Amino acid sequence: MDKLHDVEGSIEIVLSIPGKTKEEAEEKYLKLSIEEVLRIALLQIRAAELDRFDSDSVH
Fold first, then answer.
1. CB count, 10 Å around CB of 3?
2. At 49, is the secondary structure helix, strand, or coil?
3. Is 58 helix (H, G, I), strand (E, B) or coil?
4. What are the extents of the domains in the chain?
């Protein structure tokens, strides 16, 4: 049997919307395309990296 057919995987991206409940946020993100979700996730990762860089440079 081809091993590629045995492999299952998923990516869970946790996105938050300030002022929204978990259900409201999930409903909004279900309407987004995968490209939009990945773009938002990338922006959040970049923001986190900038925050980390800023806090590292303070020392």
1. 6
2. helix
3. helix
4. 18-58
